[in-house]
Amino acid sequence: MGVRATLLTGLILAGAAGGCASYEAEPVSVYQWERKVERIQREDAERARLCGTLDKESARYERECAGVKS
After folding, report:
1. CA–CA gap between residue 32 and residue 17 (Å, rounded)
2. E strands in the chain
3. Largest CB tally within 10 Å, which of 28, 36, 61, 70?
4. Residue 64 and residue 4: Cα distance in Å, rounded?
5. What is the pLDDT of residues 27-50, one digit of tens each?
6. Which 8-state DSSP code applies to residue 3?
7. What distance in Å separates the CA atoms of residue 3 and residue 6, rounded to the nearest whole number?
8. Please, are residues 53 and 36 in contact by the beta-carbon 8 Å criterion?
9. How far is it, in rounded angstroms, from Cα 19 to Cα 1?
């Protein structure tokens, strides 16, 4: 019984740790803010490009393209 409890506790802790978002420090310099904004713009452009290629009736489109202007 002790091994099961230990294993179960370990699995629960591993799942809780895996579900946490990673910490990302806020930019402090103008350069860091510019890089963050550029990264977000690139990600948005890539998401819009992907959504433009997906079938608008698919479940994937509904799941991944909510809020994307096409």
Report:
1. 28
2. none
3. 61
4. 39
5. 899 999 999 999 999 999 999 999
6. H
7. 5
8. no
9. 27
